[in-house]
Each structure stands twice: as structure tokens, then as C-alpha cells.
Backbone:
């Protein structure tokens, strides 16, 4: 059974500041780590899928890193904007063709103007 | 727009009843996943179908069942409904490769009275 933890649960950040948050997961039998962004009243939107230790991915002002040996991933947002306000979810895939994701409970990010 | 279509958007019914939720995946995607989002839980994986066959099961109750049809659309059947089944039910699709992101529909909000 995979157990994915995210911290902090919520975060208030001033507009223009940079921020980061953490996803922890079991490091044994690692297969893939997904990050999603979920805005209120919308559906989760895929940001990154990461599979290799040391992976770094970037999309605009958002980037993520992966450490499979110690079981964590960081998501970074540079120069936060109000439109970055959302819940950020990470999820672990179990692989082997069985691709149902185990999600953490998310980090709820609020950007204050 | 993720390309994943879920109907209906909202469903209100009574305890003991049976409902069917429908999902059309993105064009070309072979895998369909069903997830449940309850008030006090994160996104919970229910079941995955790949090209018409059941691929993986998560926390799906025996009262719930799903299928994927030859045209790749999927239905989630919920029976003997209880108050605790009230939740947001998401369908997601992917090409079937575990390293690919999953694309989520807008969800069906089920309310049991």
C-alpha cells in the first residue's frame, strides 16, 4: 500500500514571492511520481510526471525535483501570481500496467496580492 | 478542456437507489480510471480499465462496478446507495503508458438524500 504525504497542508504567500512544498512517498519499488494542479471548481490538471532519480522538470515558473532514494519531491513556484492559487496534488503510480494513482491530500496554496 | 467528458455533472438521488455515471475518454486514450473525492478524503482510486479489460482495482466497494465498452467509453455503476457515497466522482484517461499523465474530466457530483 502506497502512502503519499504532502506538506504543508496550506500555505499563504505574498504575490511575487517564491515558494515550495513537499511530497513524500515510499522509496521502495518506486515507479512514477505525478504532480497535478487543482483549481476550485475545475478538474485536476497534470503538471509533471517524473520517473528517474534526480529528475528536474519545468513548466513556466513552476518546477519540480525528484529524489527516489529518499522518497521525496519538491514543487517550486517562482514569483507567485494570484492565478497560482490552487491545490497542488502529488500522486504515486504503482506501475506494472496497473496505473491507478495514490494521491496525497494536497497543499492548498493561496497567493495574497 | 481535457478532452474527457463526464455525464451527468450533478446527480441527486435517495438512499437505496442505483445510478450510472458515464465517461468518454480523450480521443486515442485506451485507459480509463475512476476516482472518488469525498469531503474528508483525498482523491481515492477506484478502478482502471484498459482497452475494455479491467486492469487494476483500488478502494472500490462491492456495491460499485464499472465496465468499458468497445468504443472505449466507460460507466461506473453505484448501487444500494448510502449517505456516505455522496462525493465527487472523477473519470480520467491516459494512453495506457504508466509514465503518461492522466487527464481528468470535470467530475460528477453525487448527492444522496
Residues:
Amino acid at each position: 500500500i502506497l502512502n503519499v504525504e504532502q506538506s504543508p497542508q496550506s500555505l499563504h504567500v505574498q504575490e511575487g514571492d517564491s515558494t515550495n512544498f513537499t511530497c513524500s512517498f515510499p522509496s521502495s519499488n518506486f515507479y512514477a511520481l505525478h504532480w497535478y494542479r487543482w483549481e476550485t471548481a475545475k478538474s485536476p490538471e497534470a503538471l509533471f510526471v517524473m520517473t528517474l532519480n534526480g529528475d528536474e522538470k519545468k513548466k513556466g515558473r513552476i518546477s519540480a525535483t525528484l529524489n527516489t532514494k529518499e522518497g521525496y519531491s519538491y514543487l517550486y513556484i517562482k514569483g507567485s501570481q494570484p492565478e497560482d492559487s490552487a491545490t497542488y496534488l502529488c500522486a504515486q503510480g504503482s506501475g506494472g500496467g496497473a496505473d491507478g494513482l495514490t494521491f496525497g491530500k494536497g497543499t492548498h496554496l493561496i497567493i495574497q496580492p | 478542456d481535457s478532452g474527457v467528458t463526464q455525464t451527468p455533472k450533478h446527480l441527486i438521488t435517495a438512499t437505496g437507489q442505483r445510478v450510472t455515471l458515464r465517461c468518454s475518454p480523450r480521443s486515442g486514450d485506451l485507459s480509463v480510471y475512476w476516482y472518488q473525492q469525498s469531503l474528508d478524503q483525498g482523491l481515492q482510486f477506484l478502478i482502471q480499465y484498459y482497452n475494455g479489460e479491467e486492469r487494476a482495482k483500488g478502494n472500490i466497494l462491492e456495491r460499485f462496478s464499472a465496465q468499458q465498452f468497445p468504443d472505449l467509453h466507460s460507466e461506473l455503476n453505484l448501487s444500494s446507495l448510502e449517505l456516505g457515497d455522496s462525493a465527487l466522482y472523477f473519470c480520467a484517461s491516459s494512453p495506457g503508458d504508466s509514465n503518461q499523465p492522466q487527464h481528468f474530466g470535470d467530475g460528477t457530483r453525487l448527492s444522496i438524500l
